[in-house]
Amino acid sequence: MKTGQRLAIGGVLILALVAGLASCANTRNRDPETFGIYVSNLAGDEPRLLLSSSWQQMTHPRVSPDGKWLTLTRYNKRNLQGLALEKNGYQNTEIMIMRMDGTELETVVKPRLGRINANSHFADGGRSLIWFSTDNPKKAPQIMKVDLRSREVTRVPTPPDLKTTDPHHVGNTLVFPTVGPNVESLWIMKLDGSAARQLTHPKFPAGMAKGKWPHGDYDPKLSPDGRKVAFMRLFGKEGWRTFVIDVASGKEKDLSGPGSIDALPDWSSDGRLLLFWHIDKKNLAKMGIYTMRPDGSNRKMVDLPRGYLHGHPQFLPGGGSSKRAGIIYAARKAPHLP
Questions:
Q1: How many structural domains is the chain composed of?
Q2: Are 243 and 233 in contact (CB under 8 A)?
Q3: 103: containing domain
């Protein structure tokens, strides 16, 4: 299987776990807001739509350090129903930016047939974007960087023998997953490529049922002080759990435990909370965006409007962890969900 076909990035596997829950029954008369990017706060007050589409899913919304710009991944590969969905693959994706007031929407990295450009994140104080791309002769995933003024594109100097995805950085430190033959692991390094080392060494019980993608670690997020990394670990068909690892000691903590599906964690700017996506297959009313402390305690659902499949949550910069702290997330209308 080609690398681009088996990458388990962000919510691809999670969406597969709830396949059909958010299907659009009537594709002839689609709601123009079928897919959307929204902002709200932790109290769930007055969610506001920033960008919508009747057929293109948009994921991984992330906001610039000054709070003025948004970057996201948009999908272009249509299925038989005419919908471009994350769960159908990352081929033909594009990287976009726009102002947080909804103006100046622009494609920064154009879609290319059969290539992946996804999971963008602001760098250099908001002057650049980093993302992962398979738009190279070998079609191997690599982390790239684009200067938003000059539009010059360069490769981030990760170790050349590694296939790398899902970048996140704080200060001069970059963390990213690597695509392996049997297991995915996280690496960490300086932005100039120095001090690169493997951060996680995931191990799994013998005989664990394998899913479509390898076991391992995905979508890491460095804490604001750079001392810890929150990430999600795939346990085969069992699903995702959220972990936190101490960068210096390598000590890990499983915040979810067996049977839970917790994914896509993100830190509040003060490091006191994690924002994440929780799925309860036995009780769909409990599925949604949650917060918890970095030790896994005090789990609470964010009170967002029902009838949506929420995902890809991120804190807005500098807002701390109070009920007034801002969040941004992707959502798909699904009126039949409780």
A1: 1
A2: yes
A3: 3-19+30-333
Per the listing, tokens 């398979």 go with 134
Distance in angstroms (rounded) separating the CA atoms of residues 108 and 111: 10
Residue type, 301: M
At 44-100, the pLDDT tens digits run: 988 999 999 999 999 999 999 999 999 999 999 999 999 999 988 899 999 999 999
Q: Which residue has the tokens 């104080």?
A: 125
Neighbours of 71 (CB within 10 A): 24
Instruction: Retrieve residue 127's tokens.
Output: 């002057």
Q: What is the pTM of this model?
A: 0.92
Residue 238 lies in a domain: yes
Q: Which of 117, 57, 54 is nearest to 87 (CA)?
A: 57
The neighbour count for residue 289, using CB atoms within 10 Å, is 23
User: Which of helix, strand or coil describes residue 3?
Assistant: helix
* Cβ neighbourhood burial of 248 (10 Å; 0-12, 13-18, 19+): exposed
pLDDT tens figures, 235-265: 877 789 999 999 999 999 999 988 889 999 9
Please report, for the domain that includes residue 153, its CATH number.
2.120.10.30
